Amino acid sequence: MKKIILPVDFSDSSDKLVDYAVNFAKDVNAEIALIHVAATDIGFVIGDMGFQYFPEVEENEIKFELKELNKLEQRIVSQGVNCSHILKQGIAGDTILEYSDENNADYIVVGSHGRSGVYDVFIGSLTKEITRKSKIPVLVVPCHDEN
């Protein structure tokens, strides 16, 4: 059975991305491996006293993200596609590509939010990075608003 890596960020476009991946998985007889890459600095806050670390903030955020991953996994499984999930912390692009290598994935399905210009210059594009560095086919799903 083939394996699709599906990075998710729980944005509004995640639903569209999941729907596409499920249909694609059915077409190519594949299972889906969800991955969410959490920031490594979730619990750090800067204030009057400089940087402070609040482990409870990080713990609550990780719990929330795992709950969301579980929901997405159940949604995919309910549509007849095998699915697993993992939450990792790190640099998103590198972590996703390493995970796809480790799991001998056949495809990566990512969303494109349709942003460009100044946004890409300052923030960078995860989709662009993955498509540039991936050793396997990357399917880019347009997820921007139709308006």
- State mean pLDDT (0 to 100 scale): 85
Name the structural class.
alpha/beta
**Share in helix:** 40-55%
Give the overall form. Answer: globular
Question: Radius of gyration over alpha carbons?
Answer: 16 Å
The largest beta-sheet arranges its strands as 5-2-1-6-7
Q: Helical stretch count?
A: 5
Number of strands: 7
Summarize the structure.
The protein is 42% helix and 28% strand. The chain has 147 residues and is of the alpha/beta class.
Explained architecture:
By secondary structure, the chain is of the alpha/beta class. The protein is built from five helices and seven strands. It has a five-stranded parallel β-sheet with strand order 5-2-1-6-7, sandwiched between helices. It starts with a strand and ends in a 5-residue tail after the last strand. The model is unreliable at 117-124 (pLDDT under 50).
What topology emerges from the helices and strands here?
Layout: E1 2-7, H1 14-28, E2 30-38, E3 44-47, E4 50-53, H2 55-77, E5 83-89, H3 92-102, E6 107-112, H4 118-122, H5 126-133, E7 138-142
Parallel strand pairs: 1-2, 1-6, 2-5, 6-7
Antiparallel strand pairs: 3-4
Keywords:
alpha/beta; two-stranded antiparallel sheet; 147 residues; five-stranded parallel sheet; 7 strands; globular; single chain; 28% strand
